[in-house]
Predict the structure.
Amino acid sequence: MIDRIESAMINVTRTYLPDRIKLDKYIDKIYSSAWVTNNGQLVQELTRRLEEFLNVQNLLLVSNGTLALQVAYRVLGIKRQVITTPFSFVATTSTLVWEKLEPVFVDIDPETFCIDPSRIEGSITPETTAIVPVHVFGNACDVEKIERIAQKHGLKTIYDGAHAFGVRYKGESLLSYGDAATLSFHATKLFHTIEGGAIVFKRKKDLEKARLMVNFGIDGPDSVVELGINAKMNEFQAAMGLCVLDEIETIFEQRCELWSYYQDSLKDHVRFQKRNCQCTNNYSYFPVLFENEKKLIEVKKALTAVDINPRRYFYPSLDTLGYLQPQFMQAVSRDIASRILCLPIYPGLSTDEIRKIITILICVQNYALARSS
Ligand SMILES: *Cc1c(COP(=O)(O)O)cnc(C)c1O
């Protein structure tokens, strides 16, 4: 039996709140200039610092990771059909539908959980204009194969890199692959600006076009040159980002410690995502795969009973979304989605707390095993 221990709720993540005194100093700056948005000082400073930290060029800050994707599709002139993965957060698909594009799902690899490149070519039609893969849980897609296919068929690639902050692939930024890669800086993400996001473009001309597009297409006091939208990041968001970025190394270290602890303790009990051995880990999520959905539900129920809230990332598989045209069933994605659970991982999660999570998970697993044999 597991005793109910009174403690604060533990969620899959907890928003990282940086040093308050430092944040106040940035906010003082905003107050003294009274410049709160429209490419202000802090947005410019954060842009420079992120380009340096991530080792990328042509980075544009935007108001969130969803608009980052939508603006990227527009800038790159994506039309009609887009090949994408069914195993991701809903925004990867919903942004396509919102832009009147047709998502064409290609199933994932059962080990890496990323789009299976060997299935892409079979889904290309004369209508296909782009591929939108996801570096899911910060695990690098097979970028080389994907880029080769895209080049051969004249397709654009936009990587949804919402989970890939700081990940390096063969020593370079993973975000430097593709015509564009997008980031989300939502409060639940590893690095955040409360709400926010960014697009990293391969080409400077695309960055320049996007810069106009996120500000209504306005290029001067009396001049509108593009169809645009409002997708600007504001100064308060940038202030938060600058403060979190100052503490990013500690964030990585603490996450790494928790991640390794989970990995060591659970390796004989559940399956893990197979990570691309050419990329670094940013420890943004700790997904575990159960033998079947029933076990997942039992473990989740036992954890929820003591106010521990892991999340079913990503469930349901996106090919089941009700607003889509009938889809081919994505069997691997549906199977993985039905039995994957992300465990709490964030700086500040204590050793006692992580031990409790591990103990409950193992106990419930073994109990289920004893009953079924
Ligand atoms: C979080 C997330 C998004 C959306 O980003 P927001 O900043 O919340 O709009 C898009 N794709 C993936 C894979 C995500 O995890």
Notes: Residues 351-372 form the longest helix (22 residues). The mean pLDDT is 96.
